[in-house]
Write a structure and sequence with these properties.
This protein is of the alpha/beta class and 416 residues long. It has 2 domains: 19-217 and 339-406, Rossmann fold, CATH 3.40.50.10540; 248-325, formyl-coa transferase, domain 3, CATH 3.30.1540.10. The protein is built from 19 helices and 12 strands. Helix 1 (28-38) packs across helix 8 (177-200). The longest helix is centred in the middle third of the chain and has 24 residues, at 177-200.
Amino acid sequence: MTNPPNQTAPAGGPLAGVRVIDLSTVLMGPYATQIFGDHGADVIKIESPEGDSTRWIGPGRHPGMGPLFLHLNRNKRSVVLDLKTAQGAAAMRRLIEGADVFVHNLRPASITRLGLDYESVSAINPRIIWCGVYGYGEDGPYAGRPAYDDLIQGAVGIADLQQRSGASEPRYVPLTIADRMVGLHAAHSVAMALYGRERTGRGCRIDVPMFETMASVVLSDHLYGRTFEPPSGDAGYVRLLSPGRRPYETSDGHICALVYNDGHWQRFLRAIERDDLRTDPRFADLSSRTRHIDEVYGFLGQTLRGQSSDHWLALFEQIDVPAVPLNSIESLLDDPHLAAVGFFRQVEHPCEGEIRTFGTSARWVGYDVSQLAPAPRLGEHTESVLRECGFDASALVSLLVSGAAVSEAAGVQVSA
């Protein structure tokens, strides 16, 4: 649920005082750093003069402020540096001197060419937590290859699992699930590294490869019978792969229900007056139902088609079996539970006007994580952040005139 303002909590979240230099683009890295910013970190987003490409995705009110960018880059400050110039690279090194965390999603060869590999960055700041998120681990033959969410979904078997579970052909899940999962892994890895640094005083390097991370996620469900040597069965968790595992059609729509454990089944079969099945060995226990999962799901599908969605939702609530209506994205916006917990926030963006967003889903007691700073305009904070790092007016003018830095402000006049 979203956190309401906490009048007794200190200003800022648990990461207040932590400065993150975010040299990541698109989704995976920005999602990790969004989590840092949401929890109080000062996230400095380093952008090229062209800006993060997500600025240009989707409908927007002004160029460069698309909906994906607005959500992924709230609670961040935008600094534009051309890192291929000597002055831009020097400014980046100055930022790194005072940072706690450095995050990037460039390929290893690219980050090395920029002089921002771990060895170079730790030489500037030995306490820094350096985190690289990219496609593949450096020890294997895929090292250095480009990687995107779709490619990783295919490489780790997700698209194939879609077909095995009933789709007519391999399909990608319609979510950037690999980017999000790997971003979460990066966020918790950095949090653990910060905790370790508190005890040891040492910074460290963290590599978070997409392929290996998502392979572990998929295989934790689907290694299944191939867990054992020799195998005790095939790979693939049969319940998840059954074509019947889908929202159930009712007489007037669809619902989502999970008649799962032994208690659920006994109460459900009693409620629909199918006592004959209460002793049927196929329905006897979880192990047996798993072995006969296609029959089990087939029976549920046939049964639920006979009554309305409201009938089944009321019955499932009465007998304490988990069930929910089937939402669309549009109906989710009006979900009564999300409304009751204050999930959605209407905020005023300084240039985009009123937008709908959402806060952190975890509830914190003792910290205030309710504040949402709007996603920045390209180069909005270039001057203020560089001033904080010790650049005086003449140094700023030099950076801006040369094009090594770009400010949102028109012209290059900088007040002393």
